[in-house]
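Justification of computing resources. Each target in the renewal requires a structure prediction run like the one illustrated here; the chain below, 423 residues long, is used simply to show the kind of job we budget for.
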Amino acid sequence: MNYEKTKQLTKKRWAVLVASCMINLCIGSLYVWSVFAAPMADYLSSVTLSAITASDLAIVFTIANSVGPVTLISGGMINDKFGPKWVVFLGGLLFGIGMIGSGFAKSIPSLMVSYGLGCGLGMGLVYGCTINNSVKLFPDRRGLVGGIATASYGISSVVIPPIANVCIHRMGIIPTFKLLGIVFILVICIGAFFIEKCPEGFVPAGYEEKMAQKKNGGKDKKEHTRIQEEKNWRQMLQDPVFYIMITMLTCGAVFGLMTISQASPIAQQMIGMSVMSATTAVSVLALFNTLGRVAAGYLSDIIGRINVLTIMLVSSIPGLLLICTSGIGDVVKFYIGVSIIGLCFGSFMGVFPGFTADQFGQKNNSVNYGIMFIGFALAGYLGPTIMNQVYSASGNYSLAFVIAIGLAVLGILLSLLYRRKTR
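Resulting C-alpha cells:
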C-alpha cells in the first residue's frame, strides 16, 4: 500500500470497528437464551401437551455454541481470500433466518435446527470476520480492539434482555423471535457493506515511528507480547503450545457459559428471585462480561496476555465459591459472584483473539482463531451439560460450581506450563 492509502485506511478503520461492533451487538443475542428458554418451554409445553422445562431446552444453547467453529474456520478461509463483506452478509442472513425460524418452531428438534444450527452457524460466519478483521486493522492496539470488538458482542446480553422481555410480555415469545430476526437481518446485512478487508501487512500511519520511539526509550512493547513468525493452521496444530492454549480457553470459558446458560433459573431457584429480578441478574452478569473484555484487552497490551489470563483464572475461584455457597435470600452475595464470573469470562473472550495472533502470527489469524475457538465450543457443550446433569441428579446447581473451580485450577496450572514452554 502507498502512504496515502495507508493514511486513509488508518482513519477509516475506526468506522470499520464501529460497524463491526453494531453487527456483533446483534449476533451476541445468541447468549440471551436464558431469557428465551422459559417462555419457549411454556409455549412448547402447550403445543406438544407435554411438560417441557427450560432445562430440557439446554441442548439448543449447547448446539448453538458447538457449531460456531465450523463456520468460523470455513468463513475465515473465505475471508482471507475474498474479504469479510460477503461472509458477514451471508452470516447475517443465516442468523436472522434462524431467529425467524425459531418463531415457527413447534418442537425441540425444530428449535435445535433453527436456533441451534441456524443462529449458531450464522454467528460463526459473522463473528470470525468482525473480530479478526478488526484485530488486523489495529496491530498497534491489538488487545484493546479485540476487547472492544468482543465487548460489543457481550453487551448484547445487557441490551437485548429488557427489549426481549417487553416484547415477550406484550406479544409472546413467537412474534418476538420473528421481530428480532427481521431487525438483525437488516442491521447485519447493511452493516456488512461498511466492513473493509485489512490488506496484508497493513501498518497504520505513524505506527513504525512510535514503535521506534518506544524501543529507544527502553519500553519496547514486545516485552509484554510474544510476536512469533507467521504460522498457518497446519503449523499451529504441530505446535504443543496450541494445545495448552486451547485447553486453557476451555477451562476459562466453561464457568462463564455454565452460568450464562442458566443464569435466570439459578437466580430464581437458588436465591429465590422473581423473574424480573433474575433478568436483572442476567444483565449484571452480561455487563461485567462486557467490562472484562475491554479492560482485560487494554491491560493485556500493557502487562501481557498470559498475565491477564492467569489473574482472571485465580480471581474466578472466589466468584464461583460465592455462587456455590449462596442460598435463598443471599442476593448481594450472588450478585458479587456473578459479577466476578462475568468479568473473568469476558477477559478470556477479549484477550484470546490477540493472544492467538501474538503466538501464531497475524496473517492467518482468521483461520487460526477459528480453530482455537473450538476450545470455546467445547466449553459451550461442557458448561450447560454439566449444569443440566448436576441439576437433574441433585435438584440444585452447587456441585456444578465445584466442578468449575476444579477447571479453573487446571487453567492456572496450564498458564504456568505455557510460561515454561515459551520461555
